[in-house]
Amino acid sequence: MRHFATASALLRAAHPVPALAVTAMTAGLAAAVGSGALGMLGVVAAVLSGQLSVGWLNDLVDADRDARVGRAGKPVATGAVSRRAVLVAVAASAPVAVLLSLPFGVAATAAHLVALVSAWAYDLGLKSTVFSALPYTVSFGLLPAFVALASAVAPPPWLVLAAALLGSAAHFVNVLPDIADDAATGVRGLPHRLGAVRSTAIAAVLVLATAALLALGPVGASPAGLLLLALAVVLLGTGLVLGRRPGSRAAFHAVLLVALLDVVVLLGNGVPPS
Known about the structure:
This protein is mainly α and 274 residues long.
């Protein structure tokens, strides 16, 4: 039972919801660009390893701040899992993510490595600067680039742009529930400087721009695209309303759900050439 509890805490420290959502998006993108079964398995494994490393590093670096504000859902801060165990997990998963990228060539590996370095840089300090949105923008934008390059396909610029916009939106809504706690521990990223109201408005615009770009841009207006846009409006609106409750991550989960819907539309339409 003790080992099970430790394993469970280690999993929770990896931020499993966003990690699995990004991995699911990766699988969908791989299918959309025509990756074979082995290729899809490889990129999914690489991205999942990278996402786990990012989540673990985040909880490890933030452990002291999380403990000061009493965040009960943070396993490292509460002592549910040791810092040593999480450090070992980071040290194992980070190089595995890069090694799993190598079979796909230099360009794909470079894209994934830059995306990971960007995400790690956020964990290690950029989150407390005016440039806090930049790692999300870069890392999300490079995700479809990595997937496309892994299949020897030139990543369409519109797809990279859509992913970058979505990543920026994810940053703004992810920070909202913790703005007060972050301020108390000295975290001053861009959303903290702009405030909750303006950050919410920016996130809404970015998500809708992403949905519009994917729904209408590459293939023109289609029933599926218009349905996506309508669902994005409903889901985002619901998430933003529910997300006004203290500590709620409804807005962040709404952004992830819209992203998955975007991937469903991509699967239906395929990825037109750049």
